[in-house]
Structure formats: C-alpha cells, structure tokens
Amino acid sequence: MATAALYRHRWTLIRAPIAAATVLAAWAAWAWLFPMPDSRLVISAGQRDGAYHQIASRYVDAFARHGVELVVLESEGSAQNLLRLRGQTPAADLALVQGGFGWSSPTLERGEMADVQTLANVDIEGVWVFSKQRDLHSLVQLRGLRVAAGPAGSGHRVLAQRLLHQLRVRSEEIRWDALSGTRAGDALVRGDVDAVFMVASADSPAVRRLLALPGIYLSALQRTAALSERNNFLEPRLLAQDMLGAGTPSRDVALLTTHTHLIARQDLHPALKRLATLMALQVHAGPGPFHRAGDFPTLRHGDFPSAAEARDALASGPGWLEQHLSFSWSQALQRLLVIGVPLGILAWWLARLLPAWLRWRLESRLTRWYGELKFIENDLSGDTISGLALRRFNERLARMDTALASLKLPAELAQRWYTLHQHIEFVRQRVSGMRGR
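Below the sequence we write its predicted structure tokens.
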C-alpha cells in the first residue's frame, strides 16, 4: 500500500524533499526576489583639490566602516557628475552636484531628471569671485577679462555663463580659462588670469588659500537679491568679517550661495540609497560657516526628485540592525527574517501535516475494517443464517486477512494490526461454529 510505504519512509520520502524544496525556494527568493545589494559603490566627485573630493573622501571612510567599498572618480564638475549617473551603462552610482542642475536648470529635460534622485542636500556652497581688483562689484565688470571658471560644462562655467547672460553679457565677451581650484588660484597670483569664478564650500582648500593671500580680493557682488530672485536655487547671504577666522574675510561681503546635492541613480538598490543617506547623516551632522549643527543633511531646496528611502532615513534615522551590525550582516539578517522564517514555518507545518494525514488514512482503513467486522457480527446474530451466507462471510473475512497481511504498518500501529487480526480470527471461529447448526 503506497500510503503505508510513504508513512514508513516519511523522513526520506516526505521530510527530506520538503527540506530540499525549502532550501531551493529560499535560494531562488534570495537571488531573484530579494537580492543582496552590491558591496561596492562608485561616486563621481570633482577635482582632487576641490571640496567635492574632500566630501567623497569622508564618505569612503564612513562606508568602509559598514563593509562597503566606495570608489571616488574625479570629474570636471557637476555636469559630468550628473552625466555619469544617466544612460544605459552609468559610470557612477552616486554623485555630488551643485544647485541649478535639476528643476531650476533651463536645459535639463524632465526625462533626464527621472533618471536620478536626491538623497540629501549636504552643504552650502558660495559663489566666489576673486581678483586683484579691489573695486570689482559686478559680474558685468568681467567683460573682456580672462576668467578662470573651470572646463566647459563644469558647474563653475555653467553658472557663470548663466548669470552673465542674465546681466546681458555674452559668453564670447569673456576670455575663458579652463583652470579651477588651486591651479586657478596660482594662475591668478601669477597674473595669467584676471579673475577666478568658482562655486565651492567655504572649507574648500582653494577658497581658503585665496582668502588668505595678500593682494587677492573677494568681490562683494551687488544686486545679489535680484540675481537670487531670477534663480531660485541661489540665496544671498552675509559673509561676515572674521567669520572664517581672524581677518578672513577682512570685511563683510554679500555672497550668493547654493546647495550641494548628494544624488543617486534611480535604479540603485533601495538599501544602498538608505545607507548613503545614513552616511550623509554621519558626515554632515556638524556645523558649517553658513549653517548650524543639525541643519544638514536635509531635503529642503531639492533640485531633483527625492528618493523614498532617503525621506525615511532622514525622518527615522538608523534602525536597530543598522546601529549594531554592519551593512552586509544587517541585510543578510533581514533576508533571513523575511525569507527564512516564513519558509521555515511552512516547511515545519508541511513536515508535520503530511505524515499526520498519512497516519490518519492508515488508521481510517483499520477503522473501516472494524466497521465491516461489526456488520458481520450483526448479521451472525440473526435467527436463521443460510450456508450460502456463511460462505460469503468467510470470503469477506479471507479478503480482509489478505489485505491485512499485505499492509506493512509502522511500529506504532503494530498493536492495532495484531488486535484487528485477532478480532478477524474470532469472528471466523464464530462463523465456523455456526456451520453445525
């Protein structure tokens, strides 16, 4: 009987296949439905001597503490950083981009914005104009001068050209130089350029060096409020005297500022988006020249659509697993809980239910034979029983004996087997005894 064979070999024929199927289903769910995120990320930052590269270097250490390798790519500026996130084969997973390249960009298409998401605004950058002219108060005065504003397409050059266009200064009226950062400052000191235009944090090495050099002046631009009204990603701020240290700057300066955005590919693994946002919380939680501790990171003044994982991370902070385990271990434990626990419970339930059902079928067969014996005994209690009826009773008892002999029950049901066999023999003796009547 197949049922009896299955029950006797339930460990090899039922429970072992269930365990194998559970392991296979868990592997398939782990690999296809809930895959582990990569342990390597690429961030596109600026030039090596720029503020973006400094920020990215701090991210490298933060990610390394969670077992994730972060590779920093140098770039020519925000435009290239943004370009590396888009396309069929993106060259980067994360990027640092200055304000003015997203919603407020006059050239960026909505379809292009859909490829990237904001994880957080992490810093405030100033629009710095340095020259050897003490009386440079307007960008219009740059007409005809040689201006170092980074390579074509860089964030410095794009913003400079945009502001000059609004002031009716054509780009062709400026002699552009591709230098930026400390190299642009060196060129200004040597007299190779007349002015340096850069968008950078106040902590940028290039900004700090130029502010400290004698004979180099930070331009106090006029009409900053008007420029910020035309460009909603810009804000006028007061850079107060001695704000960056004794004598730095030497006087109050009206400064335009914008935000630094940490952005990611839209198709980046959600867990990595959350991790990057949490790393931003660690790296940028302190105060800066233009903000207080706790002001950053934030999603205010976003220039790109914000990621849901970033909103959740900034609102609730790190969870218990993220605080006590590395990234890879917390992700593995989450999958064990989400995949392993339900499948384990299902496998345990099936491993108990199927053998119990088979045992019930075996016991029900024995119960039916007892019922048949009861019918025979009821018939034997009649007043007159013919010889033909007794023959039929013997044939029924013989069939029961044959079926019972072929049934190989497990040890725990052997007692019921012997008891039923004895009862069959007892009824057969009653039938034999009635032949002499």
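The domain at 36-318 is CATH 3.40.190.10 (D-Maltodextrin-Binding Protein; domain 2).
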